């Protein structure tokens, strides 16, 4: 028998695989389950009330069906609204992903940072508080009225992406005179690191940062705690679950396989 730590990841779609990859890097020995709430994608266009109740429903179901050492909410839109509810209800360690505003403010030379996130994340009180607490001395240009998550989701599954679609979403940055453009942009949605290449092509001088690596380290730190739950299994098996009937089933299966899911 093998003694393992099992971690549940959760996102609205395949974007959260950007965080998953980083967590795997720092914790290669863990067994992973990933729950994709694709039936409810995109989260970024839904109201707070609707999202809290949906996240409660799907996460509670997953946690009652299997046992885990920790939960990673690999979604900024979910984390910035549902973490207090999840932590109140469940006792396992929970790691949320929120926009990397603090490191961005520290890195910016110009004192101008961009925040690219879903419409919901940009509007959140949590995000406003992050900016007040950590980027008070910076000008923060938040862009959230164009949901790039759909573009990233399509790229991940079909490999297809139109640069023009990304360009449309970056317009608020591109239209600024160079001196007023941010020198650091926070990718405040776990889908966006999958579009890093396209964003870099359009904004070559800007530094792009996300929370992935920090989450990888945080999960390692949590799992190293002596009282963390472990489980005995015959063999380590990483599994992907999703909530809805899928278009591009074959492509999705191939994507999951490429990330090591059985
Ligand atoms: N991946 C999610 C995030 O980090 C949201 C994408 C969506 O469903 O709108 O915010």
In short:
With 262 residues, this protein is of the alpha/beta class. It has helices at 17-26, 48-65, 76-89, 101-107, 119-123, 125-134, 149-158, 163-174, 196-202, 212-223, 249-258, and strands at 2-4, 6-11, 31-36, 70-73, 94-96, 112-116, 139-143, 184-187, 207-209, 231-233, 239-242.
What keywords describe this structure?
262 residues, alpha/beta, four-stranded parallel β-sheet, binds D-glutamic acid
User: Regarding quaternary structure, how should these chains be classified?
Assistant: single chain
Bound molecules: D-glutamic acid
**Any idea what the radius of gyration is?**
18 Å
User: How much strand?
Assistant: 15-25%
Helix content: 40-55%
Q: State the low-pLDDT regions, or none.
A: none
Determine the N-to-C terminus distance: 19 Å
Largest sheet: 5 strands, parallel
Within the largest sheet, what's the order of strands?
5-4-2-3-11
Shape: globular
If helices are DSSP runs of H or I spanning 4 or more residues, what is the number of helices? Answer: 11
Structural class of the secondary elements? alpha/beta
Number of strands: 11
Instruction: Indicate the mean pLDDT.
Output: 97
Helix-strand pattern: EEHEHEHEHEHHEHHEHEHEEH
């Amino acid at each position: 028998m093998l003694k393992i730590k099992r971690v549940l990841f959760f996102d609205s779609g395949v974007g959260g695989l950007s965080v998953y990859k980083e967590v795997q890097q720092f914790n290669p020995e863990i067994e992973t389950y990933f729950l994709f709430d694709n039936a409810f994608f995109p989260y970024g266009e839904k109201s707070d009330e609707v999202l809290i109740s949906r996240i409660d429903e799907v996460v509670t179901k997953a946690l009652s069906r299997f046992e885990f050492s920790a939960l990673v909410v690999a979604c900024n839109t979910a984390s910035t609204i549902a973490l207090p509810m999840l932590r109140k209800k469940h006792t396992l360690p929970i790691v949320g992903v929120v926009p990397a505003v603090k490191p961005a403010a520290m890195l910016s030379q110009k004192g101008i940072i961009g925040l690219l996130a879903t419409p919901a994340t940009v509007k959140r009180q949590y995000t406003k508080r992050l900016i007040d607490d950590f980027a008070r001395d910076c000008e923060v240009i938040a862009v959230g009225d164009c949901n790039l998550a759909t573009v990233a989701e399509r790229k991940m599954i079909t490999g297809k992406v139109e640069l023009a679609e990304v360009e449309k979403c970056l317009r608020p940055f591109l239209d600024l005179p160079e001196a007023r453009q941010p020198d650091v942009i926070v990718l405040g949605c776990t889908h966006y690191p999958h579009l890093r290449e396209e964003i870099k092509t359009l904004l070559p001088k800007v530094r792009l940062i996300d929370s992935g690596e920090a989450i990888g380290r945080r999960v390692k730190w949590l799992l190293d705690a002596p009282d963390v739950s472990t489980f005995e299994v015959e063999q380590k098996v990483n599994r992907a679950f999703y909530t809805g009937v899928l278009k591009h089933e074959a492509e999705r299966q191939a994507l999951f396989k490429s990330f090591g899911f059985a």
